[in-house]
Amino acid sequence: MDRNFARALALVLKSEGGWSDNPADPGGATMRGVTLASFRRYVKADATKADLRRMSDAQVAAVYRRFYWEAVLGAELPDGVDYAVFDFAVNSGPGRAAKYLQAAVGVAQDGRIGPATLSAIKAKPAGVLIDALCDARLAFLKRLPTWATFGRGWSDRVRTVRVQALLMSAQRPAETSPAPQPPGAETSADAGPTVLPVPPPPSGGKTAAAAGILVLMAGALAAFRHHVTGFFGSFF
Fold first, then answer.
1. The model's pTM
2. What are the chain's domains?
3. pLDDT tens-place string over residues 181-211
């Protein structure tokens, strides 16, 4: 994805380091991974090694975007896969990176990422593709005659790419979950206000009232009897 370019570039530059002019390096003089040939092609046609060493951050980003990121259609690739292919392209060339990517998804290896390759990429899990690409890349590097000189650094680089690419592929936008609703609450927009049922009166209400009246009547009769008994008893 194109939104990953800045992050992928930062990781690539960390792997590339600063100035290098190792005679054993087939790429020749490089500054932050940019060869003198690439600098002359995209920035300054008659550039010298001194010009290369003084290149600005904007120039570095321009070279990487045009010569590597766009060459492998980084903006069209899934998260993580974009970085893995991009770093491969920087290290071994866009054409080779594209061919190894095509081999990993089982399409014709013409070195040009097009609709057929993109369709095959989307049909494959990103994590599986990243692992396959890194395995194939490391196997390729081990076959190079310069492996004895640069093998340790290349191995560490591929390991870092694998880890970081898998992390990028695992990231997903945060999903917003709906607020929890109390049990039985209405969630439809058309639902009216909740009406609570009125509890029914206790069973046997009339019977209880009648019993209360009888108790009162019995008490009154008892009091009247006691009064009458006391009144007539006074004559004897």
1. 0.69
2. 2-170 (1.20.141.10)
3. 544 444 433 444 444 444 444 444 444 444 4
